[in-house]
Recover the amino acids of this structure.
């Protein structure tokens, strides 16, 4: 009975209101919220409601759970101070997960936490969120993995849980990971060096070793050298690095570089020296060549 009524309505130029309401998106009613200046959270989307928006920092509850969440936030943003017993380089969690883990296409935590347990191609098995955090400490932070029951681990998981408040579980949300880039015809490190010097060296230094605050902490993280991520970190894959660069760099101007430029810079960063892969022997690290991982 419903189908003939709809056909008659269309013939007379009438559209039932329930059909319009179900199809219409009202971006003018969407008011994204953020704890950081909104200009630091730029997204290449025509509608402001396209990505999940995590809660305000001011919304952290003032109870025992909230105290652990706040501590987890401090560990995340200043791992050098609050998680230093597990860190082996000069980076923080927020060095890669920008805007306190909020930024779309910068490995946002609100998109990562609800998707675990998940299959991971790197380890070829299903891992929990805690295991994923352990890998970050071992590889991206070139340190040691905190145990599952370590207070720092519990705090980081609590912060991740709170940051994803209201996010759907068991799904890949828009903005998850580092975006995507097409594989280029050829990525050239030599060309990437020129682009790096033009667009990246102002913050990360012409030597790629980052720039520090007067107290010795990094204002802009090193991209290679002893204080950067090691050879087992996800960022050492040229494709992952190109994805991150394209979606987030230069800081404050995401998607301003072409895909080719992002690939070239990634190749230039890839050829630089950095800490060895802790999963492999010294001999393998020194003499067995590795590929840049362009797939």
């Amino acid at each position: 009975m419903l189908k003939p009524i709809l056909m008659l309505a269309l013939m007379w130029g009438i559209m039932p209101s329930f059909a319009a309401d179900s199809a219409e998106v009202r971006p003018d009613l969407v008011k994204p919220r953020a704890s950081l200046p909104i200009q630091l959270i730029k997204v290449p989307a025509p509608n402001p409601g396209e990505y999940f928006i995590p809660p305000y920092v001011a919304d952290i509850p003032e109870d025992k759970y909230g105290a652990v969440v706040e501590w987890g936030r401090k560990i995340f943003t200043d791992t050098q101070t609050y998680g230093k017993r597990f860190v082996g380089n000069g980076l923080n969690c927020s060095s890669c997960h920008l805007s306190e883990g909020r930024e779309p296409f910068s490995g946002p935590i609100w998109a990562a936490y609800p998707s675990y347990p998940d299959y991971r191609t790197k380890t070829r098995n299903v891992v929990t969120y805690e295991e994923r955090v352990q890998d970050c400490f071992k590889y991206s932070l070139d340190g040691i993995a905190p145990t599952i029951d370590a207070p720092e681990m519990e705090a980081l998981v609590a912060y991740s849980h709170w940051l994803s408040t209201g996010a759907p579980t068991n799904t890949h949300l828009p903005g998850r990971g580092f975006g995507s880039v097409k594989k280029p015809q050829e990525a050239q490190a030599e060309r990437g060096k020129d682009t790096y010097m033009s667009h990246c060296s102002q913050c990360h230094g012409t030597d790629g070793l980052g720039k520090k605050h007067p107290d010795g902490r990094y204002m802009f993280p090193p991209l290679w050298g002893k204080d950067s991520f090691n050879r087992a970190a996800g960022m050492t894959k040229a494709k992952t690095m190109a994805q991150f660069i394209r979606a987030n760099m230069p800081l404050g101007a995401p998607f301003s570089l072409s895909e080719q430029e992002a690939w070239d810079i990634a190749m230039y960063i890839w050829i630089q020296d950095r800490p060895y892969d802790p999963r492999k022997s010294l001999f393998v690290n020194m003499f067995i060549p590795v590929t840049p991982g362009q797939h």
Remarks:
- The chain is about 40% helix and 5% strand.
